[in-house]
Give the backbone structure.
Amino acid sequence: MADLDDLYREIILDHYKNPRNSGSIESPPALVEEGFNPLCGDEVKLYLVIEDDRIADIRISGQGCSISRSSASLMSQAVKGKPISEAFDVLARFRRMMGIDGEESGEPEVADVRSLGELAALQGVVKFPVRIKCATLPWNTLSAAIARSLG
Amino acid sequence: MASTIRSAMTADTLDVRVIRKDFPIYQQPYEDKPFIYLDSAASSQRPEQVMQAMDEYYRRFHSNVHRGVYTLAEEATARYEAARVKVGRFLGAKDPSREVVFTKNATEAFNLVAQGLGRVLLNQDSVIVLTEMEHHANLVPWLILQEQIGFTIRYITFDSDGYLVLDELDSILDGASLLGVTMMSNVLGTVNPIAELAAAAHRHGALFLADAAQFAPHFEVDVSGLDIDLLCLTGHKMLGPTGIGALWARSEILDRMTPFLGGGDMIADVRLDGFVASEIPYKFEAGTPPIAEAVGWASAIDYLESVGMGSLRAHDLKLTEYAIANLTGSLGSAFKLYGPKVAADRGGVVSFDLAGVHPHDVAQVLDQHGVCVRAGHHCAKPLMRQIGTAATARASFYLYNDEADIDALVAALEDAYALFN
Ligand SMILES: Cc1ncc(COP(=O)(O)O)c(C=O)c1O
């Protein structure tokens, strides 16, 4: 049986209770993208300011469980101020860690996970397959927002 | 077998230990956890008797129904039709052999009503009335039909205690052709005043459609006494198998309705340029029906009847009272109950919020304790918006639950609260 401590690490609980970059940005200039998890009703609303191919600012609002909210908070930290190409790279590594887009074995590269820094706290989610969708919701929303900004 | 069940009750109380012996799922190891099943409102477990009935049907009597002239085909048809009558009698139908249409589930029954009745009853000037506490099954089929033919839908709202607001009922019903209401809310637990609502609908010349998906598993239903016109229910929430449900409707109404699904078995004649539909209820049952499921459902009804719907209700009520008292008692203001505060006004369903812990996380921590509860929007998104949340956790009770299950729920919730606060 998977252990709850793997899921609810301290970093996760901290980001759940004190979400970083939470709030909204006026649109325009911000790009607004909404994501839903139709199964459980989780919602995330992303505000993105993209300048010179960089994520100049990001704010997140919405409602959801500790996993989707902390994932959004950690994601905002990881991509804020980064060039879009770098954000894409983090996105790809995160999806691999979640066992999506990865090799069959689902075992993520250790170096890959380390390079994710605090985000690696979400690694335990993989042991709770139902919750993977919670963790990936903000990331899928980010990916949709960037795709839209690129036209 | 019925004798085992009868001995399980003394003076209106169920002996859960005896009941559980009939449910194989309680004899299985559940990983390395206790098995505390509190999600019967989503789907109940089923007793050995139901599985045996289906097994025996397949082993000894199966063939297609309504087709063959050989003995075996007659046996299968007789069992399928006997199941129809059993469901009809369980509901208090006047003409059980003609008024019950088997469907895949309650959802399909509502789609049949919307497409089969809605299309002959409604046009773009029509009005129907639903409530804000309906399950999507009694909402989306109407929204689909509305897109197709256009009509107005008015909604009866509910108050902060989960009761329908009926002050303006007469003006809401003015000019309406149909009123559709859930007999018991799957989220709030509220048991609605069905006789009163049906009478109001009839005063305005509207038909009354009832959603009995949650109600029928827990209470005696009497369509004649309540003066209901159409009613949908589902087998898997009342000890029956998945894959079967029914629409019951008065025969005059079924006669007016047009077929919804077409194909074999529902016709009297087919030519290349047209068809003649069969009689009710067959004209609504296209293709090979869920025969074994009907047989299993009939056996589930036998089981419920031998327990007695009155004893079952008394048991639900006792558990609901115990749950509300203990959850409030040990979690205090951290526990927020949705729906009526009075257990007598609700079925065995308790939706709640635990301060600082999202329902998903509640369900996850509870799972660690072997406690199975539902978390989410419960297929009632308009209701969730009305109560101002995206998700709740929900515990629901049935005849195999006891106070110890609720004690386990309370302990697990205390654990969840401690982890997050
Ligand atoms: C009140 C209510 N109506 C309708 C349904 C639909 O039942 P089914 O999914 O079996 O069609 C449900 C079940 O979730 C319900 O709770």
Summary: Residues B 105-107, 135, 137, 182, 186, 211, 213-214, 234, 236, 245, 379 surround pyridoxal-5'-phosphate (CB under 6 Å). Confidence is low (pLDDT under 50) at residues 1-11 of chain B. The interface with chain A takes residues 31-33, 356, 358-361, 364-365, 368, 375-377, 381, 384, 390-391, 419-420 of chain B (CB under 8 Å). The first helix of chain B runs from residue 2 to 7.
